[in-house]
Amino acid sequence: MSDNADIDYAELANRIRGWALALGFQATGISDADLGQHEARLEAWLGENRHGSMEWMARHGRKRSRPGELLPGTRRIISVRMDYLPEPAADSWSVMADGRLGFVSRYALGRDYHKLLRKRLQQLADRIRKAIGDFGYRAFVDSAPVMEKPLAAQAGLGWQGKHTNLLHQKTGSWFFLGELFTDLPLPVDEAGQDHCGSCRRCIDACPTGAITGPYRLDARKCISYLTIEHDGPIPERYRRAMGNRIYGCDDCQLVCPWNKFARPSEQTDFHPRHGLDQAELIELFAWSEADFLDRMAGSAIRRIGHERWLRNLAVALGNAPKSSAAVTALKARQDHPSALVREHVNWALAHQSGKARHQ
Fold it and tell me: Quaternary state and partners of this protein (predicted)?
């Protein structure tokens, strides 16, 4: 455990912010490891099964709300923010309004953020080690039982909005978070203050009613969960509401008034690849598994696999404007080896033909 009396930890904290900024992080904050106020809320959420099939959310017990159990010796968490809003991307609302196109959440249009942020966090740790010598640490980027949003809020990087995403008054919510758990006794920052007020735009805008109330999210209804984390059939009651959203959903962020202050990312890695910001559904549905794996190499989308990719696209094609081209594309997958794909294709064909039962 690092506690060197010769180190000026206040000065070190300021240097860490400077190093993080030079590494491409837009903000840095420091918090202690106490998440006691969030533990009961997390356990209640899990107890209500609002995490759906994300069993990994409960697998690690209280390590998620007790950083010191996840990494013994943890005294402080350095939280960092990296903006990802891709400046050259097609307008989100315009894409969603065109049923022939597939909408991909803005965070996934470019390269996978996990590796990029983790590499930068490691570089930050290397800079700290070079300045003070060895210390205990571990970097996390959405890859372990870490309550990244409450930690970032405690570190002053913003507050959790009514949609449960982290918000900041000057930058909105279009950013990634990463953490460096450390055994350094650094001074902590003042926690962020809630500025949602009486606004409920995110609640009213959610296509499936997944935001069941202020600061309450039922993942089982969330389109991001259904298209990314959920590996089974998408419940029919949500398919029409999905529209042409084939990977994720940004509606709650798009309507948030604080996002008028969001700034485009300077990271070219987050710029759209393969035209995914406004790609045609029929073209994407025609990709073979080899095509999918090749074109999605280095993308967060690749981890859902080709089967779920086709499942999501089939739903979007079922919601698309009726056309012979859409029917032809769907029929080409009617005999797909996957029962999951076949079921969603048949649902889509029923809607394309106008023979679907009312939902």
Answer: Monomer.
CA distance 277 to 176: 19
Tell me if residue 6 is catalytic: no
* CA separation for the pair 216, 181 (Å, rounded): 27
User: Does 177 count as an annotated binding residue?
Assistant: yes
> Using one digit for the tens of pLDDT, what is the confidence trace for 69-113?
888 999 999 999 999 999 889 999 999 999 999 999 999 999 999
Q: Domain coordinates of the chain in residue numbers?
A: 9-90+107-182, 280-359
The mean per-residue pLDDT over the stretch 207-235 comes to: 95
Q: Which of 32, 34, 98, 142 is catalytic?
A: 142
Render 279-318 in DSSP notation, one character per residue. -BHHHHHT--HHHHHHHTTTSGGGGGHHHHHHHHHHHHHH
User: Beta strands 166-167 and 76-83: pairing type?
Assistant: unpaired
Contact 173, 161 (CB under 8 A): yes
Whole-angstrom CA distances from 79 to 120, 176, 220, 278, 352 are 12, 10, 28, 33, 47
DSSP letter string, 323-336: -HHHHHHHHTTTT-
- Whether residue 157 is annotated as binding a ligand: the answer is no
